[in-house]
């Protein structure tokens, strides 16, 4: 797949990168749209923000939506063709919000 990779401030490159095999609970998504996050701008303009700095080339773009094109063997509740938005966060599962189903 193609990815936008930041190597250093003001050094963005579109590169071909390998796609890993799907794990049993993963989805493959054909990206249709993506946003530019404030953190992406900080990486591009300043090489990071605060103590978070580019230490090696990094793929940008984590605010995306698209269409499910394949499912891992354990996925039963989502079909190919389903339109989705991707949440880049990994919920903790234990806070009040997670317990209320508000993982975002």
Question: What's the short story on this structure?
Answer:
By secondary structure, the chain is mainly beta. It contains 2 helices and 8 strands, in the order E-E-E-H-E-E-E-E-E-H.
Features:
three-stranded antiparallel beta sheet; mainly beta; 104 residues
* Strand order of the biggest β-sheet: 2-1-6
The structure class reads mainly beta
In the CATH hierarchy, what is the class?
Alpha Beta
Identify the CATH architecture. Answer: Alpha-Beta Complex
Largest sheet, if any?
A: 3 strands, antiparallel
Q: Which percent range fits the helix content?
A: 10-25%
Q: Which outline best applies?
A: globular
Give the percentage of residues in beta strands: 35-45%
Kindly, what is the distance between the CA atoms of the first and last residues, rounded to a whole number of angstroms? 27 Å
Per CATH, what is the topology? Answer: Quinone Oxidoreductase, Chain A, domain 1
- The sequence of SSEs as H and E is EEEHEEEEEH
What's the mean pLDDT score? 93
Q: In CATH, what is the homologous superfamily?
A: Medium-chain alcohol dehydrogenases, catalytic domain
Regions with little confidence, pLDDT below 50 for 5+ residues:
none
Radius of gyration: 16 Å
Number of helices: 2
Number of strands: 8
**Domains counted in the coordinates: how many?**
1
Descriptive report:
This protein has 104 residues and is mainly β. Helices cover 12% and strands 37% of the residues. The chain has one domain: Quinone Oxidoreductase, Chain A, domain 1 (Alpha-Beta Complex). The strands form 3 sheets. The chain has a 3-stranded antiparallel β-sheet, covered by helices on one side. A hairpin with a 2-residue loop joins strand 1 and strand 2.
């Amino acid at each position: 797949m193609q990815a936008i990779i930041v190597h250093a401030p003001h050094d963005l490159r579109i590169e071909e990168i390998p796609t890993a095999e799907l794990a049993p609970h993963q989805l493959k998504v054909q990206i249709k749209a993506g946003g530019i996050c404030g953190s992406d701008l900080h990486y591009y303009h300043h090489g990071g923000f605060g103590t978070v700095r580019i230490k090696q080339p990094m793929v940008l773009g984590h605010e995306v939506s698209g269409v499910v094109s394949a499912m891992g063997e354990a996925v039963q509740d989502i079909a190919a063709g389903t339109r989705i938005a991707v949440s880049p966060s990994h919920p903790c599962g234990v806070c009040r919000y997670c317990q209320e189903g508000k993982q975002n």
